[in-house]
Amino acid sequence: MTLMASREQSVVISLGELHVTNDPDTLLVCYGIGSCVAFAAFDPVAKVAGMAHFVLPDSTSGNRPKTLERFVDAGIPIMLTRLQTLGATPARTVFRMAGGAHMAVAKGFEARLNIGERNVEAARATMKALGLRLRGEDVGGTHGRTVRLLSGSGALTISTVGGSSYEL
Amino acid sequence: MTEVQMSGGASGLWADLIKKGTIKSMDNLSQMVGQTITTKTFNLREIPIAQISQLVGGPEVMSVGIYLTVSGSADGHLMLIYDPGIACAFVDLLMMQPEGTTTALGEMEQSALGEMGNIVGASFLNVLADDVGMDLRPSPPAVMLDMAGALLDLVAADLLMTQDDAFVAETTFEVADRKITGMFFVMPSASLMEKLLEWERAA
Hints:
By secondary structure, chain A is an alpha+beta fold. Chain A is built from two helices and ten strands; from the N terminus they run βββββαβαββββ. In chain A, the strands form two sheets. In chain A, strands 1-3-8-9-10 form a five-stranded mixed β-sheet, with no helix packed on it. In chain A, strands 2-5-4-6-7 form a five-stranded mixed β-sheet, with helices on one face. In chain B, β7 (165-175) and β8 form a beta hairpin.
């Protein structure tokens, strides 16, 4: 499967953002994901794609900031609604995620900063609660990832430092 | 001695205190490496948290981060960020080796960079703690080599819990007789900002 084609328009999904599209020539990109999670959705029939750059697992703790798209538990339902608005059906949509790394492995960071693991667990739990399943995961580790989703085909490619690149 | 040429967006006693801490930390770094360190720029400004990695050149730029968290009376984040080649050059300086000796960051090299983080972090926090009368403790340093966005995710995750924008003090510096430049980020959390502003109001 060829991921890159010259006619594609890249849409960069920054921290806490999500984007859905039914334009088949859009490349959705999350650059330099560490503990965050890039959450990708693709309905192969409706040709609707979406990607979110989740930062935090839980919207119910702490002060509530202006936007909820940064939280896994609140962001996945928001994403589903937006996908459905464009004609996607959750049951046939392929969901995949990448990221959730543990970037700071030094002594003293283990307990305080296991945010990556918590993000991944929150995504699994939210999907389970919604009766949906994840078709693919590339999560954990101690390295960053750049994640690209091609809206027309649903091809999801992950790149890491050192040049390795693979499809999920 | 560190030479300092500074300007910044934010102002007030608290901003001056951040500058003072930065000067002290650069001064102590200068003593550690035995070289004059020139502070080229200092910017203290409020920016959207999602854009912090743009200060390094973008989220995919390969970087070495020496990261310390701040705990005690308030929380915050400190990070030294270098281009990987520059980090190797810094290791040569720290280990008193000829320029170009270090080509990869193994355990010993990371330990040397971590020590640099200790010096810079402790010097900076001592100034804040002494002047404001707070208990501020740096964590042990974590030395990371990866995409800048991935390094800064931890900071963003913490800050985005309570706010959309954050004050970032960004210092660029260079070592006099070698082409070595680096960045020092100070990112106070909401609790530390509150303490600093309280202190300013009482002053």
